[in-house]
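Pasting two entries for a bug report.
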Amino acid sequence: MPYEYQNDVNAKKIQKLADPEQAQAVLQTISTLAGMTEPVDGDQVNQWLGLLADAPIVAQKVKSSHDMIEIYPGGKREPDRIFMTVDDGKVTIVAVGAASH
């Protein structure tokens, strides 16, 4: 069974990003990848880092979390960020926002 995809972020928050269209395109790609991908038994975060890199979408694991990935929809030089968790066959978009730097 493929990954379950869930977006817990209000659409209005996405519209407030610097480039909402780019963020929506990345979210659509993640949703599509989730529906086409079988979860691995091992490190699912690592599996997703590989999937995103192949997309190509710039992302990295959040060091302080065991299951969260920070995504840079416009690349690392742009302020927009998407945060998603990957755990037990479920991909959840948990937050969006702009970097403070």
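Entry 2 (this is the one that rendered wrong in the viewer):
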Amino acid sequence: MEKSKLNDADKAYAKAVGAALKVEKDRTKLTFDDLAEISGVPRATVSRTLYGTGDSKISDIRRIAEALDVPLSKIWAAADKATGKK
């Protein structure tokens, strides 16, 4: 497996995006398997995205957010706030 090429700021943002998605997942009480099935994103990718441990594709983040019925703007706003961005 290739090592992530993310810098520290990008890693922090990926974790913040994942945390925002995880809050929404917990709100819906969906399991990782449920979310994978509904979104069409492989379970391993869902897990990596929600834990912020990988360089997730925007298309995967969008599909997960749609499955959670949450606008991407809410996810970005939460990630911006968590990382001190405007």
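Dev reply: Rendering is fixed now. As a check, the viewer should reflect this: The chain is about 70% helix and 0% strand.
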